[in-house]
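Section 5.1 Outputs to date
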Amino acid sequence: MNLDLSGKTALVCGSTQGLGYASAAELALLGCNVVLMARNEEKLKEVVQTLSRNAKQHHQYLVADFNDTVVVKKVIDAFVREHTVHILINNTGGPAGGPALTATAEAFLQAFNNHLINNHHLVQAVVPGMKAAGFGRIVNIISTSVKVPIPGLGVSNTTRGAVASWAKTLATELAPFGITVNNVLPGFTQTSRADYVIQKKATDTGSTAAAVLEELVAEIPAGRIGQPGEFGAAVAFLCSPAAAYITGINLPVDGGRLGCL
C-alpha cells in the first residue's frame, strides 16, 4: 500500500490542537511538508516544532483568524503565489451550542463564514496548483451531525450540512483532475470541543460532566471515546496515494456510534 507523501505540501487549518493537530502530525509522519494555519502565532511557533521531520521535510505556519474571511483569503492567496498546496485539511472550531429555533441570524451568518466561506476561499486558492500537479486531496473535518443532527447544536448542524453538500458537489467537479474531496466525521473524541459539548449538556440538564460522559460512552459500541491520533490516521489515509479512488464520501470515525449507514 502506497502511503508515501514525501514531497507533498499539506495545509492544515485549526492545527495547533485537537483534531487539526492530530491530522497534521500523521501527515508529517507520512513525509509531508506541513503548513499549520491558525490565529495564535505563539502557539503555532511551539506546535510546528513538535512535528516529525526528516532531512527533506520543512514545516511552517500561516497566521489567520477564521473569524475574518478577508484575512484568510489574503493569507492563502499570498502563500499560493510561491507554493503549491497538494493537500488541504479544512478544520474550524464549531459554533456555540443552542437550539436552532432561538439562534440569531447573525450566529448563522458567522458560522457560514467561518466554515463554508473560508473553506471555499481556501479551495479556490489551492486547486490551480493541484490541477497543475495532477494530485490533490481536500479533506473537510466536520461532524457526524451531517448524518444525524446532534441535539442542542442547531447552528452547527445546519452549517456542517451545508459544508457536506458543498464538498460532494466539488468532488464531482474535481475528480477528473486527480483531486479528491472527502469529509471525515468525528464522533466523540478526546478534544476541547468534546469537553465543551459534555459540560454544556451537564449544565443544561443539571447533571455532572462525569455522568454525561458515562451516558455518551454507553452509546458507543467501541465502549470508549476516541483518541485524536485515531482520527488523524483516517485523515492521513484519505490524503495518501492509496486513497486515489475514494472521493465524495462522509467517513465517520466514531467507534460505531452512528445508527445509520
